[in-house]
Write a structure and sequence with these properties.
Distance between the termini of chain A: 44 Å
Number of strands of chain A: 2
CATH class of chain B: Alpha Beta
Helix content of chain A: over 70%
Structural class of chain B: alpha/beta
Largest sheet of chain B: 6 strands, mixed
CATH class of chain A: Mainly Alpha
Oligomer: heterodimer
Largest sheet of chain A: 2 strands, antiparallel
Number of helices of chain A: 11
CATH superfamily of chain B: P-loop containing nucleotide triphosphate hydrolases
Number of helices of chain B: 10
Shape of chain A: globular
CATH topology of chain B: Rossmann fold
Order of helices and strands of chain B: EEEHEEHEHHHHEHEHEEHH
Number of strands of chain B: 10
Strand content of chain A: under 5%
Number of domains of chain A: 1
CATH topology of chain A: ABC transporter involved in vitamin B12 uptake, BtuC
Chain lengths: 289, 235
């Protein structure tokens, strides 16, 4: 019985961790390339979830198409927000972007509260009825397909950053922005693309969470904070480190929720972070930026 | 005139680093700027590349005004810079560094042609093409930085302190490369603290002190000038 609970919670934790990875990778991209801390990242995730919700409920689109719609919509909005809000403070000290994005976060969350009301809503994927049991471990088709989609998106992102011209430009800017400008890279275009990718990944995650749990205007803040923990543990700009840290946080949250108390599930990642800062201050990947 | 800079002023915040700097360069020549630390040489170069906005003055390059353009537009217009301190991307391979240098070139055929040319001009880079740039020696990184700046096919190449921190034998090699670039038809603006090296190869030279041009003339004439010999050549 204990073993079954353990395996079940481990599986749930891995799925949750994969979703966190999508969110944290986007945050890490923005931090690494624009040297900007985006505290409104959780609101990108929330807005993406609402786009996903309305595209299934109002437009009646299938779940996976809705994820794509949410990604496209939030990607576009992300690029607009970069241009209007963040572009003017690029290159300024970090405190500027921290304050600005915190304000943006509050504004977006309250705007959503005003427009959509605080009631939790669920995205109907139509896949949660199909499920299977293996040795008492329960898995729905919805969760399985979410897991697969997360893996596909992370692989696509890694490929994009490693091999495409735009991806290489992103890496060049992260390593030396002036050298990138001197080489003829259109830095402003890359900034827009980075925000678009980051917004799209957060939106995909939001829609997935909206199907597994709920969509609410205040769902962003906790996710923003967890994402910052993840990129702190994993190392900024380190894709593998971030994925590893995200899964670790997912597991801690899920196992803590299953074995200690579900009520404190949001506290476990922070406790883990404090412990790691005390015991392993160099970070999990050792070094980073 | 191929490059004509007039009354250029620039600075950082309230500190003015350049005061009415006027400089010209003829096509196919090597023009050098010498001066001590903090004279404004790198500031001048960053203004030419569009990374720093001049507060006043004009920059005319190849028949058009380029001050106020974004850096990538200036590279596309045919002006590229190999910056001080080399600034290669340490966590990218030699080949990736070079490919990124050619990002302003639309035709992929031209990029691969230039890549082949870079590898034949700098055999050491061909050997190390898949190594991370950060693992190269200082001299190799300088070669990479110059080769990267040439990938855009510039008509005017800005070289900022290419001899800095290099062993004398490598400096000689860099001098050969600069001459070769000039002979290939590319105009070169060379900023150097190694005044003897710079004046020996320059067609024309400017001396910069605290943001002002204080002296100019043929490279060979400045080599014989008493004040230059005292201040910059240590003789």
């Amino acid at each position: 019985m204990m073993l079954t609970v353990f395996l079940q919670q481990t599986l749930n934790g891995i799925i949750l961790g994969c979703i966190y990875a999508l969110i944290a990778l986007g945050l890490s991209l923005i931090f690494g390339i624009l040297e900007t801390a985006n505290f409104a990242h959780g609101e990108f995730y929330m807005i993406g979830a609402f786009i996903g919700f309305f595209s299934t409920s109002l437009l009646g689109l299938p779940f996976f198409i809705s994820i794509l719609v949410a990604m496209a919509g939030m990607g576009l909005l992300g690029a607009v927000i970069e241009r209007v809000v963040f572009r003017p403070i690029v290159g300024k000290p970090l405190i500027n972007s921290m304050l600005l994005s915190f304000g943006l976060s509050t504004a977006l969350a309250n705007l959503a509260l005003f427009l959509f009301k605080p009631d939790p809503r669920k995205i109907e994927s139509g896949l949660s009825e199909f499920h299977f049991d293996v040795c008492g471990i329960f898995m729905t088709a919805e969760r399985l397909s979410i897991l697969v989609l997360c893996v596909v998106l992370v692989c696509l992102l890694s490929w994009f950053i490693q091999y495409t011209k735009t991806g290489k430009s992103m890496r060049a800017i992260a390593q030396d922005r002036t050298a990138a400008e001197l080489a003829g890279i259109n830095v402003r275009r890359i900034y827009s693309v980075t925000f678009a990718i980051s917004g799209a990944l957060a939106a995909a995650a939001g829609t997935m969470v909206g199907a597994m749990f709920y969509v609410q205007p205040d769902m962003g803040l906790a996710v923003t904070l967890k994402s910052f923990i993840i990129i702190t543990l994993g190392g900024i700009g380190q894709i593998k480190g971030v994925i590893f840290a995200a899964i670790l946080i997912g597991l801690v949250e899920s196992l803590g929720g299953g074995f200690i108390s579900y009520a404190y599930k949001d506290a476990y990642p922070f406790i883990l972070m404090l412990l790691l800062f005390i015991l392993k201050p160099e970070g999990l990947a050792g070094g980073g930026k | 005139m191929f490059l004509k800079v007039q009354d250029l002023c620039a600075g950082y915040g309230r500190i003015q680093a350049l005061h009415n700097v006027s400089i010209e360069a003829e096509k196919g020549s090597i023009v050098t700027l010498i001066g001590s630390n903090g004279a404004g040489k790198s500031t001048f170069m960053m203004c030419l590349s569009g990374v720093l906005r001049p507060t006043s003055g004009t920059i005319e390059f190849d028949g058009r005004f380029i001050h106020g353009l974004h850096p990538e537009k200036i590279v596309a217009a045919g002006l590229s810079q190999c910056p001080e301190g080399r600034r290669v991307w340490p966590k990218m391979t030699v080949k990736e560094n070079l490919e990124m240098g050619g990002i302003s070139v639309k035709d992929p055929g031209v990029v691969s042609e230039r890549l082949d040319m870079a590898f034949s001009n700098f055999p050491i880079l061909a050997e190390r093409r898949n190594q991370l740039a950060g693992s190269l020696s200082g001299g190799e990184q300088q070669m990479l930085a110059i080769a990267r700046a040439l990938m855009s096919g510039p008509k005017l190449l800005l070289l900022d302190e290419p001899s800095l921190g290099l062993a004398p034998i490598i400096v000689e090699k860099v001098v050969e490369i600069i001459k070769k670039i000039r002979d290939g038809g590319t105009t070169v603006i060379l900023v150097e603290q190694n005044a003897f090296m710079a004046l020996s190869i320059a067609d024309y030279a400017y001396v910069l002190e605290t943001g002002h041009v204080v002296l100019s003339g043929k490279g060979s004439d400045l080599l014989k000038d008493d004040s230059v010999r005292k201040s910059y050549l240590g003789v």
